[in-house]
Amino acid sequence: MAKISIGLDIGFTSIKVVALDLSAKLPKVISFGSIVSPQPGISSEADIELEAVATAIKNLLQAAKIEGNEVTIALPESKIFTRVIDDLPPLTDKELASAITFAAEEFIPLPVSELSLNYQVLSRSKEKTSKTVVLVVGSPTGLINKYIKVLNLSNLKPKAIETEIIAAARSLVGNNPLSPTTLILQMGASTTDFAAVSHGMIWQTRSIATGGLALTRALAAHLNFELPQAEEYKKTYGLVQDALAGKVFEGLKPVADIIVGETRRVIQSYETKYPQDKIKRVILSGGGSKLPGFVIYFANNLGVEVQDGDPWAMLAKEPALSAKLASAGSLYTVAVGLALREQ
Hints:
The chain has about 350 residues and is an alpha/beta fold.
């Protein structure tokens, strides 16, 4: 009997959905699709805007012929607080919960009463000299309630709510402990998120407020274009140095270098903490990373293996879907990871 799992990625610029059949040993793609997000959409607090998002979701599910009313969704990394706390002593479960609540007050600029705190223990030992390492996620309850409200308006129920970067790590690396230590770079419209994954777990995260829109704005200013025209040139020529006499490359390079520089800092920070566990590869993902020349530019500047993320690689699919999936690329990284949550 089919066990259908639905991942719904409600982004600021687009909404993506993926339905997988998890009943077989290898999860199988049943359907997928995307739709442009209404604006200002999910970033708004107004009921009429949230109703527009709900209508778009219903239209998307209908077009993709996806049935079922339980979905797994992700909260945007830019609106939540994720941190690996690696300096806690050995603690009991009760002591650990209290310590995490106290630690959250140090790095989250919101009262704990306004947060939903979740954590995953990454490393733990009873030895007095050892430390407890914990991945902590703090999500504003107001944000959670807004997403649940949109689902209710869409006649859907949340099966689970997690973060975009956790979903991306699941679809691109999985929980295989033999996978090489990997840095995932997930570039969205407004942010770029990083996650260092080792032995199937996230050991370090980082998020910066620079994404695909920043590249488009930089190119528009450089070429004196309107944003829609700059977006088309960005997608067509990307970081190919000799295209159009290098004009697009020169316009995009300053912002690309900001992201490259941050990638270097994340790698250095991780390897300083875990010197015996070097990062072996970087996987680029998200709509913002699908530019010509992007992978090559990062590889030349980082000195490690750089790959284009493929969330479909570990999934079974019908031959008729293969071409469509290839062109969809890593736009569906988060949605695939959400659908895989119960695997």
